[in-house]
Amino acid sequence: MSKKIEVGKILIAQPFMDDPNFKRSVIGLTEHTNEGTVGFILNKPMNTKLTDLMTALNTDEDYDVYFGGPVSMDTVHYVHNVGDLLEESIQVSKGIYWGGNFKKLIFLMESGLINKKNIRFFVGYSGWTDGQLAGELASGSWIMSDWHANYSFQSNSDKLWPETLAHKGSVYSVIAQIPTDSSNN
C-alpha cells in the first residue's frame, strides 16, 4: 500500500478513530502542496439543504449539504462530475472535479443541466499542514485508496465507509465488518 499523498485519493478512517469529526469518515483529497493538504468528508450529510444556505437559489432540486470538515465552517465547496460544463474546474480524479465558475454553476443548476447526482456540496473542509497528514498516515490513522466517482455521486453515505474498505479486499473486507460500537462485538 502506497503512503504517497496525492490528489484523487481517499482517506478511510481506521475503525477505532475516536475524533468525532473523522470517525468512520471517507475523505476525498482535492489539493496537496508543500503547504498542506485539503479534502472533503464524503459521508457526513448535514441536516440542511443548499437552499437553506442560498435562499436566492431558484431550483426544484433539493441539494444535500455535507460536513466537509472542521476547517472554515463558514465556507461552501463542491465536487462534481461535469467539468466539461463548468469552466475553472480542477480535475482531481477520473470523473471528479473540484470547484469551478460559481456563477456558471448557479446558471447550470437553475437551468436543470446539473442535478444532485452531478454534484456534492460541503460546508467547511478537512485540512492538514505540511507533514501533518504524512505523520497521521505513518501512525496508521488512515487507510489510503483511489477515489472513484461512484463514491461521491452514487454511494449511500451510511454505507460508504465499509464499501470503500471492502473494495480494497483482503483484510480490509474484515475491518469493514467491525461494528461501530465494539462492545456489541
Q: What do these coordinates show?
A:
With 185 residues, this protein is α+β, with helices and mostly antiparallel strands. The protein has a domain of 123 residues: VC0467-like, CATH 3.40.1740.10. The chain is built from six helices and ten strands. Strands 1, 2, 3, 4, 5, 6, 7, 8, 9 and 10 form a ten-stranded mixed β-sheet that branches. The longest helix is centred in the last third of the chain and has 12 residues. It is globular and about 45 Å long. The two termini are 28 Å apart.
Compact description:
This protein is α+β, with helices and mostly antiparallel strands and 185 residues long. The chain has 6 helices and 10 strands; from the N terminus they run ββββαββββαβαβααα.
Write the layout of secondary structure elements.
Elements: E1 9-13, E2 26-33, E3 36-41, E4 45-49, H1 50-53, E5 64-67, E6 71-80, E7 90-93, E8 96-98, H2 102-110, E9 119-129, H3 132-138, E10 142-146, H4 149-153, H5 157-168, H6 170-175
Parallel strand pairs: 5-9
Antiparallel strand pairs: 1-2, 1-10, 2-3, 3-9, 4-5, 6-8, 6-9, 7-8
